[in-house]
Design brief:
- The structure is a single chain.
- This protein has a single domain, classed as Ribbon-helix-helix fold, CATH 1.10.3990.
- 59% of the residues lie in helices and 18% in strands.
- The protein has three helices and two strands, in the order ββααα.
- The radius of gyration is 13 Å and the shape is globular.
- This is Ribbon-helix-helix domain-containing protein.
- It comes from Paracoccus halophilus.
- Pfam families: RHH_4 (PF13467).
Length: 79
C-alpha cells in the first residue's frame, strides 16, 4: 500500500490537484485509454456528474469501483 499521490489535471481549462492512490491513477489512465480519451477528459466527465457535497477524489474512486464492478458483472454474464 502506498500513500495517495497528488497529480494535477485540467478540468474546463483550469488546473486542479487531486490526491489518489497509485492504483486508482493507473486504472483511470487505463479506462481513458480504453475509451480513446484523455485522462483529463475522463476526470472532467466524472467531475461534472458528481454531487456538490462529494469531493473529486472520492468521486473518482467511486467511479473506478463502479466501472470495475460493471466489467466483472459483464464478464460473469458472458461465462
Amino acid at each position: 500500500m502506498a500513500a495517495p499521490v497528488k497529480r494535477s489535471v485540467t478540468i474546463g481549462g483550469h488546473r486542479t490537484s487531486v490526491s489518489l492512490e497509485d492504483a486508482f491513477w493507473r486504472e483511470l489512465k487505463e479506462m481513458a485509454r480504453r475509451r480513446d480519451t484523455t485522462l483529463s477528459s475522463l476526470v472532467a466527465r466524472v467531475d461534472s456528474r458528481r454531487p456538490a457535497d462529494v469531493g473529486l477524489a472520492t468521486a473518482l474512486r467511486l467511479y473506478v469501483l463502479a466501472e470495475l464492478r460493471q466489467m466483472l458483472a459483464a464478464r460473469d454474464a458472458a461465462d
